[in-house]
Automatic annotation (TrEMBL):
InterPro entries: YceD. Pfam families: YceD. It comes from the Bacteria. It comes from Megasphaera intestinihominis. This is DUF177 domain-containing protein.
Length: 168
């Protein structure tokens, strides 16, 4: 996923659009990620600002995740922002990435962007009820047959205190 940028170097400020798609496997080392079998679509533009090459756009893909509450499979569409600055100087500023002056290879940048923006928690729906902590039933399918009046053993002492006050 390379951008030929020689033409942009000749015309400072002129924006050059780009668009491509590829299988996620072409990004390298994505075997353990939920979007490993998906297609990655990248759209954007690049331009030379007089000192550096600026690349901005979006990265889109989808992945098969697991709901954090009920463990059901969930398909998630992802849309991430691509925004990088590239330079050729020997001493680059901290926020500028190196390139060879002819082309910019976006492969590693795209992979890193998707990995770093990986969702921390995925829910099958906003009101997911999760699993019963006693029997493991999916509570989204309906209530389970576990007793709901069971008291946490750590709080049993407080329940006894309440019962003794009620008897008085």
């Amino acid at each position: 996923m390379k951008l030929q940028v020689e033409e942009a170097l000749k015309e400072a400020g002129k924006s050059f659009p780009f668009s491509f798609e590829c299988p996620a496997a072409e990004l390298g080392e994505v075997e353990d990620l939920p979007w490993k079998d998906a297609t990655v679509v990248v759209d954007g533009a690049y331009w030379f600002d007089g000192n550096h090459m600026v690349v901005q756009g979006t990265i889109q893909t989808s992945g098969k995740y697991t709901c954090s509450r009920c463990l059901s499979p969930v398909s998630v569409d992802r849309k991430e922002t691509l925004s990088e600055v590239y330079g050729t100087e020997a001493e680059l500023p901290e926020d500028v990435l190196p390139y060879n002056g002819e082309y910019i290879d976006l492969t590693e940048t795209i992979r890193e962007t998707l990995i770093l923006s990986e969702p921390m928690r995925v829910l099958c729906r906003p009101d997911c009820k999760g699993l019963c902590p006693q029997c493991g039933a999916n509570l989204n399918d309906g209530p389970c047959s576990c007793p709901t009046d069971k008291i946490d053993p750590r709080l049993e002492v407080l329940a006894q205190l309440l019962r003794s006050k009620e008897k008085r």
